[in-house]
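Reading a protein record of the kind used here takes little practice once its layout is understood. Each number in the token line that follows is a code from a learned vocabulary of backbone shapes. One such record is shown here in full, so that the layout can be seen directly:
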Amino acid sequence: MLENYIQTLFPNLANIKIILGVTCQMSFIQRMAEGAKQLSERARGFGEFASDRAKDITKKSSELLELTRMKHELRKLEKEMENNLAGIGALYYQQQSGQADVGEELQRLLESTRELDMEMKELEEQISAMQPKPLICSDCGKEIPQGGRFCTYCGKQVTN
């Protein structure tokens, strides 16, 4: 009965309830859309961050692969150098003992060894240039371990 009385006093009350309901729904939808937009922006930012980290990792792994290849090449040259030096020793012994005339072969092997030495020095310089330089403490001059935040000798905090 009270309900009928209220409806007679406010005949548009049902319409107002519908309008208020739609308004509330629109407000809710707008808040959801705004939240989705913020989430999208965060996801895009995370995607860019992840992409940058992936590029860094790819670059570092490529550098590491190249460094490993160069070290392997250096080991091959060192082994060849050992063989050359052993051959020079054997040829020199033969020459001094008068067993054979090995002068030309000895000269060829000496020249090859000089070239190997130059190649090895060049490769060592390239390897050294690719490897990270250790930090040096500005206070005491000692080397700071990689990733260290304090000098292990004097305790000073590392500054870049």
Notes: Helices lie at 2-9, 13-96, 103-130. The chain has one domain: 2-131.
